[in-house]
Amino acid sequence: MNIKNVGLTILIMAVILLVGNGLYHLFINLFSDTELSLIVRVGIFGVIIGVLILIYALVRERIKDKKNENF
């Protein structure tokens, strides 16, 4: 394993930790904040779910395309 792979692995793990922590606090604040309207809560959840579906679709498409590549 070369040094670039180690650095990339550490970077990816740190980004996952930070994003996970941010999402955790977002959900905690959404549930505990009583001043937010239902429309704002549903909108935020819709955006999050939409982004997750798009990421899943892109990863799935990339894996499918990778299987069909001939070099």
Structural class: mainly alpha
Q: Which band does the percent of strand residues land in?
A: under 5%
Low-confidence stretches: none
Give the terminus-to-terminus CA distance: 25 Å
Helix content: over 70%
Shape, per Cα inertia axes: flat
Report the sheet with the most strands, covering strand number, pairing sense and barrel closure: none
Cα Rg: 18 Å
Provide the domain count.
Answer: 2
In words, what does this structure look like?
The structure is a single chain. The protein has 71 residues and is an all-alpha fold. The protein folds into two domains: 1-34; 36-71. It is built from two helices and no strands. The longest helix has 31 residues, at 38-68. The chain is flat and about 55 Å long. The model has no long low-confidence stretch (mean pLDDT 87).
